Amino acid sequence: MGTSCPKPDTKPAIYLLLRSLLLNFSEAWFQESIQQLQRRADAPRCGRTDPDGYYHLAGRAELAMQVQKLVLPHFGFEATKEGVADMIRHCAAFLSDQDVAHLFDAINKKLGMSPAACQRFRRLAASLE
């Protein structure tokens, strides 16, 4: 399934994409669902938080896809797992920009990652460029 919208190729366009994702991931239902996933992940550790900062969180990708499938097609990306990977690779070229990097980290915090996990993911994404 193709998409007719062009992919963002400027900082303002990338910023708009990331801002759209941040706003949607900030919704109460989504944040409550992320917290549920974190509690489920913490249960085997007697409620102690993940020492890896929730870098990996079971169920997060499927939950995030509920938002991504609505947002990504408006920015030229497929509403699929592959489309998400393409979007991350596409944004990687802009991660040297402080504003974009900050927004990228803010999204990952909304996805339940600790600040250290956000930095780890940003380093991984930047290496994909």
From TrEMBL:
Which residues are the signal sequence here?
Answer: 1-28
Keywords, in A-Z order: Signal
Please verify whether the record's keywords include Signal: yes
Q: Does the keyword Signal apply?
A: yes
Recorded protein name is Ankrd17 protein
Which organism is this protein's natural source? Symbiodinium necroappetens
Source organism lineage? Eukaryota, Sar, Alveolata, Dinophyceae, Suessiales
